[in-house]
Write a structure and sequence with these properties.
globular, 16 helices, alpha/beta
């Protein structure tokens, strides 16, 4: 079997790529041929783990909208992924990759053009669905807002019209309507909106083991010998990094906390504090007593996998707010007070209040046990082989 992996090309996160890599790694372990279609900046990471492929089209600019709404359609429009020129160029590149690799199936996450290409070329499509992003979804904390005019999807709907297919109203329809396999890298309690739909198949998590459980830097290992151990992943938050880095420095000076943090810009080591630009998250999470993060899917699922209580700071990103709501509703975490991230005393009090809450730990263990029945990438490839 030959599988082409084509995760999204816009945005700031690695999640779509690494989830694809987890599935691709399992597929090649079974003897399948895999190839990637990715943006240039992802190539070094792919090559480091022995993958290859070709370059995807990339948006030429970010489109300045008056406001950015909450749906994936809004985010994609902001990133320039719905622009006519990008849609046309992306499909040309996809057709070339398909012609050269001749895949039996294509695996995507948040790709806004490959579903159209697969539909045109009659190639089976598998897709992840990392949160219940549909035009009808509403959040408890804030109603879903959409700022994208219907004309933003004109190029997509032109293609569908030529194929005699009904138009889409939301980019989520590219997966919901056209994918032969829809994988949810979560558990039913974390995605209750999807749990009653037979077409969505839960797999637990799609974490790439080689990436998440690599060797820890010596400085990190030294800090993790102390307790209580706090893992901080705020590099993808809306908070200015210098603010939370300073707060962490102050916190270890006035408390017994041992803190390990992943950063985009800073690197430092102090007694009971290690901040690194790159960390194998699973290796740190497996030793953590609590995790403070921005609500990203992989970090949340690492915490779930290890039964670690969570403090969440999701801010403006609707996907992360959705994840945070579910963790809080299930009792496995709390929302962090933004003000506490700039005040070391308040942060220490907040962390200890969670560490001392037996009910939060018990709920985290329940989530861990629920997730343990799913086989992640193994289940994903079993299903891929069946389409």
């Amino acid at each position: 079997m030959k599988v082409l992996f084509a995760p999204m090309v816009g945005g700031r996160g690695l999640g779509p790529l690494t989830r694809s890599m987890a599935v691709a790694d399992e597929a090649r372990r079974r003897g399948h041929d895999v190839s990637f279609l990715v943006r240039q900046s992802f190539v070094p990471l792919l090559e480091k783990h022995g993958f290859s492929g070709s370059l995807a089209a990339e948006p030429r600019k970010q489109v300045q909208l008056s406001q950015v709404g909450d749906t994936w359609t809004d985010i994609a429009a902001y990133l320039g992924l719905t622009e006519n020129d990008f849609v046309d160029q992306s499909q040309r590149v996809e057709r070339k990759a398909i012609k050269e690799f001749k895949p039996d199936a294509v695996f995507v996450e948040s790709n806004v053009t490959m579903p159209l290409t697969c539909l045109e070329d009659h190639i089976p499509l598998a897709s992840t669905f990392t949160w219940a992003d549909t035009s009808s979804l509403s959040l408890t904390t804030q109603g879903m807002r959409s700022s994208v005019p219907p004309t933003r999807l004109d190029r997509h709907n032109d293609s569908l019209q030529r194929m005699g297919v009904e138009p889409i109203a939301d980019l989520s329809d590219l997966t919901v309507r056209f994918a032969q396999l829809i994988l949810v890298p979560m558990t039913p309690s974390l995605e209750p909106e999807l749990s009653d739909h037979a077409r969505f198949r839960f797999v637990g998590d799609l974490l790439f083991h080689s990436l998440e459980y690599g060797e820890l830097p010596a400085a990190v290992g030294a800090v993790l010998k102390s307790r209580p151990r706090v893992y901080v992943y705020l590099g993808t938050s809306d908070l200015e990094e210098s603010i939370w880095v300073k707060t962490l420095q102050d916190a270890v000076g006035i408390s017994d906390l041992a803190i390990v943090a992943a950063s985009r810009e800073h690197e430092m080591t102090q007694p009971r504090l290690a901040i690194q630009r790159w960390l194998p998250g699973g290796g740190v999470m497996s030793s953590a007593d609590i995790c403070l993060h921005a609500g990203t899917a992989n970090t949340m699922m690492l915490a779930v996998r290890h039964g670690v209580p969570q403090m969440l700071l999701p801010f403006s990103d609707s996907e992360r707010r959705y994840h945070a709501e579910k963790i809080v509703a299930l009792g496995a975490g709390v929302l962090a007070d933004k003000a506490a991230i700039g005040d070391a005393s308040k942060l220490c009090v907040a962390i200890h209040s969670v560490l001392d809450a037996l009910t939060v730990k018990q709920a985290s263990v329940r989530l861990r046990d629920e997730a343990a029945v799913y086989a992640g990438p193994r289940m994903a490839v079993d299903m891929l082989e069946a389409i």
